[in-house]
Design brief:
The protein is an alpha+beta fold. It has twelve helices and 16 strands. Helix content is about 30%, strand content about 25%. It has a five-stranded antiparallel sheet with strand order 8-9-12-10-11. A hairpin with a 6-residue loop joins strand 15 and strand 16 (about 235). Helix 5 (about 105-110) packs antiparallel against helix 8 (about 135-145) and helix 10 (about 235-240) packs antiparallel against helix 11 (about 250-255). The radius of gyration is 20 Å and the shape is globular.
Amino acid sequence: MPKRNAKPQTSEGYYRPTTLAEALELLRRPDLAAIPLAGGGEAITGRVRGRALASQPQVPAVIDLSALGLDFIELSEDELRLGPMVTLQALVESSEVQGVAGGLMSRAAGLTAPRQVRNQATLGGTLLGESAAHADLACALLALNADLVIAPEVEQREAVPLETFYTGGHLERELLVEVVIACPPPGPRSALHRIGRTPADQPLLEVAGVGRCQDGRIEMIHLAASGAGPRPVRLRGVEQALQGVPVNSEAFEAAVRLAPEGLTLPDDFRASAEYRAAMLPVLVTRVLHDLCPQD
């Protein structure tokens, strides 16, 4: 409980720019400690862009991004383009999103948060926030080879693979303006398996996959895991070992056992590192059996 005589927090101001130029200018003002506001969940829980806000007597200024027109969903023949201000519920309900990779993104968005939160939470906040380590949607988009499109300047765009961003990237004076997913050709299946204390709880561990099998052999496979570190990770070693391997063969089993290698698995009150190491190959196997069903 807060101290009885504690002073309430104050903010340096609230801004609602209507253009990207205005938003970037606010972020770069040397006299203004500002944070972008998407759905507001990270600000409510007390951490935005790595800053602990709850203990500060004065929180940074807030830059509300809701008037920038970044809530679009656009599907073309070869890619799906999503604005970072799209809500998770919009991703659940969108027919365009449901039609990509067997609806993996829609399903993952639905698992990421309850309905009341999905109506407010955004794609950008989910991918960039502190909760990304356990977010179902972040794991699914990593398996789908999503790219983040970042605007360091008004007329400049930089495409950064989500995997690259999760290996050490962060935003300071830039804004995320788009998430792009290349639509896989017909044929690949998708799957997602998770474990948690309850079905509705944040997952202790999760694996998402996109793949294609032919004649019982794995032709293409993308695997991502969340709950296995501070941010979701691609299981590149397992992917490489599975290329061309018959399902349920000795080589298949050996590749699955590689899943925990190279990962520093969390060891916390929710689950031990040993438990996560034991369960990760199990989840990988479940995903692979969904991707390559056997008669």
